[in-house]
Amino acid sequence: MSADCIFCKIVAGEIPSATIHESEHTIAFLDIAPVIPGHALVIPRKHYANLFELPDDLGNALLSDVKRVGEAIVSATGAQGLNLGMNNHEAAGQLVMHAHFHLIPRFDGDGLKLWGQQAYESQEAMMALAEKIRNSLS
Ligand code: AMP
Ligand code: ZN
């Protein structure tokens, strides 16, 4: 547990949450300020700041619980789809520094645009960036 982490306090039961699901490694609860009602967060019980700190061997448990909770949200809300998102670091919009997945139910024609897109300056620029990223894989 990390002192002053609001999600650690939810895991510890020190502050209330609309809990949906609890498993050995994760808990899931409704986001207090939903993009769309039913918007939920799946978080590891242990404190890891973001995706890059999550241990690989937690992957199966996290993905399995994300799928399980996602299916339940879709079923309970009557949604036609579900967005899965994760903000990592402040620049990406992360406000709570305890790793978490956002599950957002989506409805045909709900009009929600999650992010805008843009074109690369050129095909060469795109290929050069792909090569740079490939070379950065460790
Ligand atoms: P992020 O910007 O990815 O760090 O998202 C943090 C999310 O946590 C936001 O969508 C908040 O609405 C949500 N949140 C913050 N405090 C609580 C809380 N006490 N219970 C439920 N959700 C919360
Ligand atoms: Zn925490």
TrEMBL record:
<feature type="active site" description="Tele-AMP-histidine intermediate">
    <location>
        <position position="100"/>
    </location>
</feature>
<dbReference type="Pfam" id="PF01230">
    <property type="entry name" value="HIT"/>
</dbReference>
<dbReference type="GO" id="GO:0003824">
    <property type="term" value="F:catalytic activity"/>
</dbReference>
<dbReference type="InterPro" id="IPR039384">
    <property type="entry name" value="HINT"/>
</dbReference>
<dbReference type="InterPro" id="IPR036265">
    <property type="entry name" value="HIT-like_sf"/>
</dbReference>
<feature type="short sequence motif" description="Histidine triad motif">
    <location>
        <begin position="98"/>
        <end position="102"/>
    </location>
</feature>
<feature type="domain" description="HIT">
    <location>
        <begin position="6"/>
        <end position="113"/>
    </location>
</feature>
<dbReference type="GO" id="GO:0009117">
    <property type="term" value="P:nucleotide metabolic process"/>
</dbReference>
<protein>
    <submittedName>
        <fullName>Histidine triad (HIT) family protein</fullName>
    </submittedName>
</protein>
<dbReference type="InterPro" id="IPR001310">
    <property type="entry name" value="Histidine_triad_HIT"/>
</dbReference>
<dbReference type="InterPro" id="IPR011146">
    <property type="entry name" value="HIT-like"/>
</dbReference>
